[in-house]
Predict the structure.
Amino acid sequence: MAKRRSKNTNSTKLVHNITRTILQFVEGKRYEPMTVEKLMDALAIASVNQDLFKKVLADLVTEGKLSIHRDCVTLPKLSEQLITGTISVHHKGFGFVKAPTGPDIFIPKHLVGDAVDGDTVEVEVSPIVTAKGPEGAVIAVLERSRSHLACTVIEKSESRCTGYSLLLGKDKPIIIKKASTLKVGDRIICEVSNWRGNDQLVEAELTRIIGHISDPSIDIDAAIEEFELPHQFSAEAIEEAKTYGAKISAKELKGRLDLCDDECVTIDPDTARDYDDAISLSKDEKGHFHLGVHIADVAHYVSPGTQLDKEAFLRCNSTYFPGKCVPMLPEELSNELCSLKPKVKRLAMSVLAEFTSKGDLVQYKIERTVIKSAKRFTYKEALSVIEKKKKSPHSDLLDRMVDLCFLFKQKRFERGSIDFSLSDDVIIVDEKGVPQKLERVEYDITHQMIEEFMLKANELTAIHLANQGKILIYRVHEEPTAESFQDFYTFARSLGFKLPEKPTHRDIQKLFQEAKESPFLPQLSVSFIRSMRLAQYSPDNIGHYGLALEHYCHFTSPIRRYTDLIIQRLLMTELPEETDLEEVAKACSEKERISFKAESSVKQLKKLRLAKTYFDEDPTRIYPANITRVKPFALFFEVAVFDLESTLHVSELGNDYFEFNQNKLQFCGKRTGKTYTSGQTIYVRLDRIDFLMQEAKWSPVEPPDTPRATGRKNGQRKHREKKKPR
């Protein structure tokens, strides 16, 4: 009897211990939902006690102390919850929904349902958190963001007409009704009649025809329609802009600090028509720098509640296409009184700051001013002067800019910011929208110094407003999780760079310093950027991870960004108290994202059109390409002459069985031993261009025996030189 009582007592203690162990572990801050088997492994439960463990766990679930969700053990509070938000859908099919609090909810492609970009949706959130953050599934579309779609006719028969929309992607073709007049390649606007019709396909009716895919002159018009970009100003807004005239009145100069005698210049791209920032920089007998960052005083002309203000907020930003800008403000204002043209007086807001010879801030002030730019430099002209290839009366000013720029860059490096130094490819088109070439714009010292001065002005403005206790719209950049960087670490190691097991921010800085001496800097930079979340606007200051700053806002481009206009009003106490900064920040973040998508879609199509001209000239031409990523199913590569990224499925790599090596991010042929690794140069041939689906098809080939003219400088075509756009 005593033995039986002792055995029962021990069993009770064991149940108690297992119960306590499970709850302590699952309730811990570091716990992530896991299966029962993994939980037993994590707690080192002996095999003899595993049946009892499962019974105890089942009792805890029955009692409501734990939950089982998708085969994983969770706390009840972590079981599925419903949230409502706006979905942002990537062109590859997956999406993100902004939660009321916390990180965005990742929606896998197969769980997006029939939601499209911009819809208000109800999402069921899973308690299982992945490297991408919390995941969820769209269970209902509460409000559609649009009733119309832009698409291209990809198939036409007597019984059916099918369209493809960039917004919906390949997997969601559109059945177009009333399409008797259409032909394959027509770019159209259609009204959606059923988002989930027969065969789960979108059904729509033709509204109007924009043109044909073969016509490059309508690429921008089609994008404006597809992404619903406001592009025409009301007569009232234009009339308001015209009322200010062409010159500044004497009345407008009163109360402003007159800086017209200061040596001041603008430095902008060749094609710029609106100059919203100018720089002055002097040096005193102590060796101190006196920097002036002068920004067009847009707030003086665009008052809250006016038609101009309403139109600007409707757009939130300017959108830039190859050869054309869809402006936030009418050109009657943005290209005239708000443009800091040379040799004329212009109203400005100026950040005037003094720095020591080591780049440390001494003092600053922000004033309403009047300036007169002495010279309009292009980046190329300024670089020629700095390199002493061209003479200029402003040579000393530019030299001082270089000196202060290097001091600011050193300060930025010391606080942990990473300098990518990436060049940019600009698509040059003619007056009919036909792409002529890609022009490489190097991130030279002229671009660096203007960027450093703008960053400093933005930082000081944010600090200034925060110190006044004002609520403002910050430009914030959330710190990424360690998990989100794992692919980047693996990629960097696969290229031969040494990283510790758990790299610090300084390790990453050192990595990029080393990468500048290698050919891998562009690939590393892109991989690193892909690992991070996008910067956005918010009244809640969480800092800017990429710039390593505690306070940062956008102030320096009020002609093309509405947030900068809001900041100008805050500086001068001209912002109405009822302004909902949360709403403004949200709208500006969303419109920025839409503009980026629209710009990217046109650039992609123009690059494909450029590639087609090469293909027509010589369809056998071989191109060098660089492998940018290797995934278990495919490798991604970039053809630099067109700045186009594409993929090769593992089955297309050759007559061999290729195995994927996760640690090396590499494919290796089992029979031949041939390898494909990130960073490696391969050679490809263009097989075809599909303008309907806006993609290119490539084949891998052996390296050419002799050099071929596949990568002429700037991607120029040999048979003729085209005229640049005006």
